[in-house]
Amino acid sequence: MKLDSAASTLEPVKSKKTPVKKNTKTSKPIHSKRKTIVRDISWLSFNARVLQEAADTTVPLYERIRFLGIFSNNLDEFFRVRVATLKRMDIMGRSAKMHLEENPDEILADIQSTVISQQAEFNRIWHEIEEELKHEKIILHTEKQLNREQQKFVQNYFNEEVRTNIIPLMIEGIQHMPYLRDKSIYLAVVLAREDNSIRQKFALIEVPRSVLSRFLILPSKDGEHSIMLLEDVIRYNLPHIFSYFGYDKFSSWVIKVTRDAELDIDNDISTSIIHQIEKGIKARRKGKPVRFIYDQQIDPLLLEYLMRRLGLSKKDNLIPGGRIHNFKDFMDFPESVFTRERMRRKILTHPLFHNAPSVMKVMQEQDVMLHLPYHSFDTVIDLLREAAMDPDVTTIKITAYRLARNSKIINALINAVRNGKQVVVVLELRARFDEEANLQWKERLEEEGVKVLFGVPGMKVHAKLCVIKKRTGNTTTQFGFVSTGNLNERTAKVYGDHCLLTSNRNIMADINRIFAFLESPRHDVKHLQACKTLIVSPYNMRRFFLRMIDREIRNARRKKPASITLKMNSLSDDEMIFKLYDAAKAGVEVKLIIRGICCAYTENKKWKRNMEAVSIIDEYLEHARVFVFHNHGQEKVFIASSDWMIRNLDHRVEAAAAITDPSIKRELIEILNIQLNSNVKVRIIDNDQRNAYKHASGRKMRAQIEIGKYLSEKSYS
Questions:
Q1: Positive/negative CA dihedral, 469, 444, 536, 43
Q2: Of residues 225, 371, 462, 630, which has the active-site annotation?
Q3: What is the pLDDT of residues 86-116, one digit of tens each?
Q4: CATH of 537-713, one of 2.40.30.110, 3.30.1490.190, 3.30.870.10, 3.90.1150.10
Q5: What is the CATH T-level fold of the domain 1-136, as seen in this structure?
Q6: 350 is in an annotated binding site
Q7: Is 82 part of any known ligand binding site?
Q8: Residue pLDDT, tens place only, 472-487
Q9: pTM of the model
Q10: 176 is a catalytic site residue
């Protein structure tokens, strides 16, 4: 089977109009006039790293399929958001060119050619995986590959489960073309007669993958596992669906439309933000098409008809693909068919909480850093559950960005309200693609008596904060946390993050100031200005870290040791990048661990010292943000919720915390050193975005394995 989803060439992403110029001494920028790499081109390079994991034969088969699904899902969101934005900017003309430093249509052309060229590699990987699945006696059947028992099984399943969930549309007889929903896939069908006695007709059927599993496990021989995709179940039953029209020949191909998913929400504070979100979600469902994917074997007349009815042209990212679309569903490929169970890494309970009767008591004695997913997220849930039941706890305030579907966090907060606590939840309604879920959480929380805040007009609340107030007699004690990741127990099992559990008075005072800012009717910035320990955007985070880099630059110029180590998801803010260039020029040792977008060039012949940049893609998603500055040998270490992007530094409420506990500080530095010294699953980020693997000289080190060992062997006093 061939696939729809674009695959990566795993080669450097190069602009057609400004090719890479090679230099034997040092690499030159991909776009010679640009001082940074185009953000969207860097993103495509990141997604190529995801595809590399799918191509890696040392990765378990189930995980390789999952990485293909992740790649496809990433690409869907990229088109829905970034490509849609570029198309909007293309309409703006000159002003957009000034902002991007080149024409949006040139970037779109680069994206289009890169995505199309990725198709061959994606298909190659899937073909290889299919062969390995067959070797494991796991077989995907099409509608033409069923034995009699399976045919009967598929027909019965269709009649009992599928038939009532589909609505066949004879599109030629409909005046206005039916709206094709984003995230959905459709069977485009040609109905004909073998003897050509009736003119052929076109039809569309939406595959009901939102209500039925994409995968149907079929009756199989002993030792074998047969699977059929939902669209092929429908294909097999096309004669039953259209039998009363008199047709006896049916051909079908899967198509998919990707739509503009940006929410147009203005900052008119007189309009309810909730109504704006609801309006935006409805508008998203009818967003303009930004990509049309189709089976490259599709009937040419049907393709021409669909393009005409959908109002598409060749400029609308028409992607010829294979038989399978929406490969993101393969992230949920049936795990039960694999005879070899996946090796799951052991999740540790932090040693300080082993047999501890009270989480808050431990926190009162010392700060604790949870390193997720190596440490269990249950400790955070236990903290909130304890606070909900403790009769001395009066208040819980917390920010929430992305929550699990069946959130234990929410359950603990509701229990707290029922136990008479005041609970305040800052719920970010504009968390992209989680808006609907968060609106539902809002309703449930408010029904239970939770005070729900919706953030700040014009900016998202992305900080991960909590404060718990406990009053015993005349004494008030506060507990809480600052985290790099979301309060989501599902993703906490696979996202690499850090969560500082603390009762530090200075940190708690600043968290209270941030909540005062969020709760004040006019969002008075004086509350942020009063913060003395936490670094907060949009108030002072940019300025603070620029000063930290400047300090290292001064030390380097004075011939003193100077170094900066930064770990984040994305680095795209020009001002921060240019300051890092200044540091490299001055001779500061700059080391970067960037999972995703990295718009910084890392080599320049004018610099005293090139930057070292790597990206780690492995079983866990590297999600943490950690910043380390040498500071005359007295390292300054910070964890943060924010990447170094314009949106994080200027248009979101974010928080970074300085780590003062010496043992935790050393722990974070050692974890970063493990990642920097590892040579398995590590790609080098260079000027050409080549994604070359780091050379494994000597002992092979795989960061996520080594960190797990380090934490499991670590003792805590």
A1: positive
A2: 462
A3: 887 777 666 655 566 678 888 988 998 888 8
A4: 3.30.870.10
A5: Methane Monooxygenase Hydroxylase; Chain G, domain 1 (1.20.58)
A6: no
A7: no
A8: 888 999 999 999 998 8
A9: 0.87
A10: no
